[in-house]
Amino acid sequence: MNKTLCLLLGALLFAAPFFGSVSPDNRSAPADKITAAEIKTLYLTFDDGPTDSTTPKILDILRDKNVRATFFIIGRQIRGREEIVRRTFREGHGIGIHSYTHEYSAIYKSDDALLSDIRKCKRAIEEVLPGFSTMLYRFPGGSFLCPQYRQTVSDAGYHYVDWNASSDDAVLAKATPQELFDRAVNSAQGKSKIILLMHDGVGRKATVQSLPAIIDHFSEKGYVFAVLNDV
Length: 231
Ligand SMILES: [Zn+2]
Hints:
Blueprint: H1 3-19, E1 41-49, H2 55-65, E2 70-74, H3 82-90, E3 94-99, H4 104-107, H5 111-128, E4 136-137, H6 150-155, E5 159-160, E6 165-166, H7 177-188, E7 193-199, H8 205-220, E8 224-225
Parallel strand pairs: 1-2, 1-7, 1-8, 2-3, 4-5, 6-7
Helix pairs in contact: 2-8, 7-8
Bound molecules: zinc ion.
């Protein structure tokens, strides 16, 4: 199967569990009664942290705007940044497993290699957050990259989450904050449940600079910000 076809298939498979069910009853609800299905929800997600250059700035903005997000963490980056992870947790954000090494060639070699990487990352997170445990997982590159591993991960009890909108901050290396804002807004168009992909990797200045406007935009559109731990 070629990569484009994999991506298409991945998008279709992913869309089904998250966006396939709106109860017809809700359409006839009284106008003053807002039901769960009518609430527009935005899940801000940040992959590839913690980093010294980006994560604290993202946390500052989220604190100032009083919104919560979810961070998918790279395990081997935790050492020396334990306090950033603790702060992320303390300030009410969701925390998930991303990868220990984030090296595609190693982690996507086999079922065992992938699960061992996930377990190592999970342990690294839980070591700095005693009492916290997570089975939330995001595939590096998205599950679309290697759909054959979806079952592996699910069978091991992990709950993987992809995304259905993106600011493309990892794709557009030299993008301006305005370009990232436009990508985020355009890719989220018409969706009542948005899982927005961004990155708090090293030196993501444009991501930091685009974030306040992204938050303001979706707040004005009536979206509620939620963390993926809630799902
Ligand atoms: Zn990543």
